[in-house]
## 1
Amino acid sequence: MITDIIKKTKAYFCLDCGKCTAICPVTRYNRSYSPRKLVIKTVNSPDGNTLSDERLWNCLSCMMCQLRCPSGIDYIEFTKLMRKDARESGFLGQSTHGNVFESLWKIMANTKINQNRLNWVTSDLKVSDNSEYLYFVGCLPYFDQFFSDLNAQIIKIAQSTVKILNFFGVEPKILKDECCCGHDLLWTGDLDGFKSLAEKNVKLLKDANVKYVITTCPEGLVTFRFDYPKFFGDLGIKFLHITEFISEKITSERIELKPLNKKVTYQDPCRLGRYLGIYQQPREVIGSIPGIEFKEMERSGRKSVCCGTSCWTNCDRYSKLMQMDRLKEAKSTGAELLLTACPKCLIHFSCAQKDENYPEENRIKVADLTTIFCEALGGI
Amino acid sequence: MNQRSDFQPKIIAFACHWCGIGRNEINPVEEFPKFKLIKLLCTGRISSALLLKTFEKGADGVVVFGCPEGKCHYNFGNKNAIKECKLSQSMLDLLGMNGKRLRSEFDFFDQDGGLDEIMDEFVQNVKELGPNPLRID
């Protein structure tokens, strides 16, 4: 019920001030989209008109508006719940890549599927079945195959992570049958799909008998920390992002790193930054590498801009413009390498640079933080 | 995979209008009892999303028929199909469903035995792999 959504997200508190629209990175490019208008429209006529509004699917759920809202309206929760109702009424956003990921998740969620996803574990990577650390790889092997033409070497993130963990004396456990955390299905309103994936993961995590779960995907981390407890209660496991793990280790241990003479900048992923408040740790990790010259982008930290699309939905020309501008901003810092801590940021920024009309002067290499840190440790 | 002796695989075929199989004059139900035919104007329409969706909905095997390389009516449609089929096969392998459930045939008219032999072999392969875990009977 839409009235319930309005109550739950406190949408009736909306002052019509427009701060959300002023800060929204989507509105900056797509003038027809306005979070304020969507909220006001829903509050004024809660009869379901908004559900068919395709602009509901333009939200990046980047949380920028929510931090500015003087009334404390939970806009991202509003989007999430409205999308669920919209999907139930038969309205959907434009899925990218022909909706291939939804098919993938639906297949993965099936309990009879035995995945064959560990081909990336080479003999030099040490993994163990008896460990209190588990590395949750997530969708990385699938992204690596699907986006192989981007040359983003996505699976290197997983390999580097195991190398880093090995360096700090941890031989992580890796699951053969883990599946996507369900983040994208949850945020595109498919609650049943999310639950079927999550149930499979929860069972695996409980059976794994571990204390810590390390992820390299901020979306996974948000889902594990905030959404799984809502549906399945506390799992008794501490979920950590790899940057949290590394920053804790480098403050307590003295480590020798190879110097990397590079000028770098860092893109704060929305989920890692605004959702989880992990701003400092990635910067500590970058700062620990000798020789690296770190340049901060103009809009960074809490003000950092999203990488343009989310949940494989509504990737349009506005997303491309957003990505172009963000890459230009990264390049204008004088950096030669744009680091990020989210595989999706890596995919989106690499994809934007594949465009034929992409200006050569703005071209910048994009890499994941783990791969650079692993390089400083001695590399793969 | 659990093998059933009475297992009759559900095979879906995507065929290009120009390659001979997807022609309008053909009645697919009479001519091709071994598979269900989905006609396309060109295999350029094939995408990994379409192929994986077919498996998600329970197909045991999928075969794509298109024109030989360099003979696409629209120049590049079959090149796209070859790429997408390879990608889908690698995804199926990752999912543990075996990429052999998907077969692409782009020069079946030049082969000895032609279509019948190809299909017999494919049906046999799928039978050995067993039913799709997602199959709904």
Note: Strands of chain B lie at 11-16, 36-40, 61-65, 102-105.
## 2
Amino acid sequence: MLIDKTDTSHSNDPADVAIDHVANNYEHIILKLSLIPEKWIETYPLLGIFDFSITKHVFLLILVAFITVSSMIFLVQNYISSKTKVPGKTMNFIEMIILYMRENVLKSFIGEKYYKDWDALVYTIFFFVLIGNFLGLIPIFDFLGLINYLAGGIPVVKDLIHGGNTVTANINLNFALATITFGAFTIAGIKRYGFFHHWKNLAPPGLAWPLYFIVVPIEVMAMLIRPISLTLRLAGNMMGGHLALIIFTQLFIIEVAKNYGIFAALGGSIFSVSLSIGVIFLEIIVAFIQAYVFALLTAVYIGMAVNVDH
Amino acid sequence: MGAGLAAIGAGIGIGLIGMGVAGAIARQPEAKDEIRGQTFILAILVEGTAILLGLLSLFIG
């Protein structure tokens, strides 16, 4: 992140730099878009749900959604309209992923009979999270910062540069995704067993009746905690990786430069850059695994709701 | 410190899972795929707890 000299709102405190890099930024809003006057939100913070301003993370979210949808449509259209029906390189790769997911995740956890209802959801979640994770690894915003620095301040770009971040490190977005999963496995159970039977499935039948006072609350809590654990797993993994990266690169250099001068920081940067390259390789693996895990757990939960009898 | 403790717990848990998986695959190579699927779920659960605690220690500390 290049330091913008005209912007004095940033401190050089390492912790502030790290948090500013990872968290959503409400000070630099790209497009103000509020349904109600801002004064109302200031007095009643709960009304903030009507504030649709586009911040850094909202911008990233739109970008990720656009890339996901358009790349899939483009690839599949290309494949369908081609005369030879030979899939290209990217198409082959995506086919490989989808085949793997279908054979190892959907068929084994949801079952041959019901997986057709839910496969689209699982694939969509996988590719959305995957592209979100990978887009965070590409320092587009830092690159924009370089352009802004060279051009001497462009109005729209100036609001965009404050830290590149993974959109899937945002807890709100992950909770929205996990809510979709929650709705999906509830609907899956209701569709299979009917409304009342689905909730009866929570506790196994045939226990002595006093036990139900213990089993039912535990099962309800286990059900409600699923979206929360999904949220925190993805957000924690993504945020942790980025924090480690920032600490290895920027904070290290800032601290050394503060205490020992600029030449020591130059020497230390060799060490920190080589460390951060290692972290980036780890992050590439983690990005893949977390997308897979989110999709896998969606399938597992749907499977648990659908196949209660074994 | 909290993060360190969480890492120790997760390390032991995932290590135990890995040990079990290596033994299971060595004993029954033909059941490799099924074992791998189950491993993932268990490892995810262990890891989830660790991450939760790590995040907690990050926000409290």
Note: Chain B is about 90% helix and 0% strand.
